[in-house]
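Reviewers asked in the last cycle whether our approach scales beyond single polypeptides. To address this, we selected a multi-component target totalling 226 residues and predicted its structure end to end. The input consisted of the following lines:
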Amino acid sequence: DTAVSQTPKYLVTQMGNDKSIKCEQNLGHDTMYWYKQDSKKFLKIMFSYNNKELIINETVPNRFSPKSPDKAHLNLHINSLELGDSAVYFCASGLAGSFDEQYFGPGTRLTVT
Amino acid sequence: AQSVTQLDSQVPVFEEAPVELRCNYSSSVSVYLFWYVQYPNQGLQLLLKYLSGSTLVKGINGFEAEFNKSQTSFHLRKPSVHISDTAEYFCAVSNRGSYIPTFGRGTSLIVHP
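The resulting structure, written as structure tokens, was:
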């Protein structure tokens, strides 16, 4: 069983389009995260949700909007895609209360042309 | 604010040789420390973590790390590497009670036959 899954694995789209990436975890964790990994492998946290509530919103353009329909899902919607949005996006989950280890999904490679 | 510095962006080593990947952190409060590994085209997975207790931490795949509070370091070591250890390694730190992790920029371990 896949602990943290993301769809799609690859996403190629044109500038200006709107796209979504879905994430699901079956670990029963209360906290979920979205990270962006750039071409130099630098990993930066974007959002964190705890029990469907936003608890971290780092400096991210408001074109990015996370949505958590329930605590097992955290989707990422991106409006008006730009070239600079090209990256690998990782979903992760972890235990609530304090930062402990995180479980990462396989990543979604987004390419904006 | 906390920060993580991985001093080497790339570490080439021959198979069966020992290796050390360096990680230094800065934080004004007590921390949790982690090492993650990312194999090509995959998500990150936890190698080991230090939360409290013994400063020598053993992880998966024969890796270990030592927490040195006076030097604010958490270096990762393996006595004998395999080709399959070729991957990107990330050091991460979080303050106790915080949801906000900080990752280093990664060290690419390249094991040559």
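The first strand of chain A starts at residue 4 and ends at 7. We regard this as preliminary and will revisit it once experimental data from Aim 1 are available.
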